[in-house]
Amino acid sequence: MKSITIRGIETSVADRLKKKAKIEGKSVNQFIKDIIKAQLGMGNKKRYTVVHHDLDHLFGRWREDEFRQIQGKIDSERIIDEELWT
Measured at the alpha carbon of residue 49, what is the angle toward residues 22 and 20, in degrees to the nearest 5? Predict the structure, then answer.
């Protein structure tokens, strides 16, 4: 693999790259490689798996303990009562 150095990146651009990479859970290097591949038509496009974060600031997110509590309630409602079905 080759290395390419890009000089003269503005601070505001670098900050946005870091922020977007963090949101996607990638390193800045991987994020930039993905952008380049996409622009060259070489990227892997995911269909139907787009994750949107545009309304997170309006609705918030569950903490891990809240999620487990809610998921536990859902799981308990899915238990089939064999006595009712025999």
Answer: 15
